Amino acid sequence: MATASRPRKTAAKPVAEDVPAAPTAEATATAEPTAEANAAPAAPDAAPLEPPVVHEAPEPPAHRLYVTPTEVIPDDENLSDVILDDATGQPPVDVDAVFVPLTPLGSTLQCTVRLVERTFLGPHRNPVTRLLQPKGAVVSEGIAARIREQLAAQAARVVADSK
User: Fold this and answer.
1) Which of 49, 58, 132 has its CA nearest to residue 98?
2) What is the pLDDT of residues 12-47, one digit of tens each?
3) DSSP-derived secondary structure for 17-86
4) Are 85 and 155 in contact (CB under 8 A)?
5) Rounded to whole angstroms, how far apart are CA atoms 68 and 152?
6) Burial state string for 132-148 with b = 16 or more CB within 10 A and e = fewer than 16
7) Residue 7: phi, psi to the nearest 5?
8) Is there a smaller number of Cβ atoms within 10 Å at the N or the C end of the chain?
């Protein structure tokens, strides 16, 4: 199959010689510097602006004395029967010393030991040890009461088993 070549359209564009030359910006800038230099600067229509006001940097927020409450603990059905002090691997000796008030009149308490719980998970009851409260965690009175009740019941079972 033979293809015929098409002629190009070249007649539509004007030639540069036919178009009158417009003065360029460079030509006008070099021709008028004497007129602008002789003219006095015009007064502004508005009053001059005042210098910007420099404000001091704001004070950084005060360091909080406590962290946000750690309120995520298992519900009563899933809270383990064995709660241990992670440092000793044994139940805490003094149940009342596990949580101390954060402030003298506050309603939040701070955990003084790292509490872990030994429990069994999954269909095969695999033994796991999971973190219950980190040391220094700030908790509400309700959460602390639940953990204290569990620790007291655990201590009562240990005393009953030893008799």
Assistant:
1) 132
2) 555 555 555 555 555 555 555 555 556 667 766 776
3) TTSPPPPPHHHHHHHSHHHHHHSPPPPPSSPPPPPPP-PPPPPPPPPPSSPPP------TTTS-SEEEET
4) no
5) 26
6) bbeeebbbeeebbebbb
7) -75, 145
8) N
